[in-house]
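User: quick one
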Amino acid sequence: MGVLALQGDFERHVHALEIAGACAVEVRTAAEMQQCDDLVIPGGESTTMLKLLNLMDLKEPLREYLGLKSVFGTCAGAILMAKEVLNPAQECFGAMDLTVERNGYGRQVDSRVVQLSPSASFTERMGEGALEAVFIRAPIVRRAGAAATVLAEYEGNPVLLEQGRHMVATFHPELTDLTKDTRVHKLFLTKL
Amino acid sequence: MILNSEQYRVNVAFAEMMKGGVIMDVINAEQAIIAERAGACAVMALERVPSDIRKEGGVARMTPVNIIREIKAAVSIPVMAKVRIGHFAEAQILEALAVDFIDESEVLTPADEEHHINKHAFKVPFVCGARNLGEALRRIAEGASMIRTKGEAGSGNIVEAVRHIRTIIKEMRHLTILGKEELVHEAKNLGAPLDLVEWVAAHGKLPVPNFSAGGIATPADAALVLQLGAEAVFVGSGIFKSSDPEMRARAIVKATTYYKDPAKLLEASEDLGAAMPGLDISKLPESELMQTRGW
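Assistant: Done. Structure below.
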């Protein structure tokens, strides 16, 4: 497993994947990316990551990777994987049929930790129980295409979705107490 | 323990998102746009960069509200702003303005020589400077969600930033080999709460992100403090006091991502133009040091 380590909380994802039972490495170059079977795009600043992908000539390698292998995007990662980004409009990779609004809940003072009830398609595979979701300047999914399956919602908006081999969360499963719950990362591991 | 409150978790989590990034000092919207374009993960809004504060003297105060508004309107990355040490009324104003992070900063003229702000009274997260582990843990106990080593702001000289990050890392390592009763003694020596001292002893790191500031002027400076254990960098005067700010900003961003890769660091160091002028800190009189403000 690779974790894109240009900027953001990549270290926490490496840790979470290891607790979930995977072997994870930080990815900063196209060569490192190609060595990984799966990739996580972590939280951070999506505009910054986009600039860095350009600056480091990683845009095309990532586009190719998304066409071939499984990718899990959290928060900023989810923004990059969407088909359309609002507030402001921004370039994205269209790996999942979603329209995402940046900072949908407001600024940092509106960040929060909440308990969610995941959908049946999540609990049937990963087990029952509420899911803790840490939202940090989180985006809101304003539209999800028919190909995307909603795995959890908050205030009527999807926050955890899958589409084929890809997955996104608008919250941060890597910042949850991982001694108690690693179901989200484990679900991604089933896509290997 | 303070570390378990929801507000605190959310604020520390936000600080986590800036790891591996560069936070750049900017004094107007135009500079903020350049910083964002170059790949900054946040900007720090202020009236004058530290090297100008140092040169011009006088009282340095909270970032003016109109500058912050202008910068917030110009960029979509988080906007931080500075208040004077202990000046909680300035912090209340910045919270009402909904800045994303407040820096209770020694770069400004302190408002209170004994007390720092009680940061638990705020929803907005705070970053504070520290020169050693005791100072870092006192600020965390007061509610800081991010620590940055102080270095010597506006000097263009990395020596103090290196001293401070090395000191904190060494003091944390030391705690990890001590027994329970020794930690009590160490908490007394550090002047820090025992529960935080025990947390550091168990984890070998701070409970909040630990960034570096104060003297970073080149891509190599950024790579140095990151290899020493800093998790992101603040660059103050180093960018907009250089001969080609945008180029230098991009180069420092690149060096921050590839801090362990000498070939990429070489690429980042090509054709940069002149760095900001530097100061020999050993020749500065004690009264001109910024790092000794606060405790």
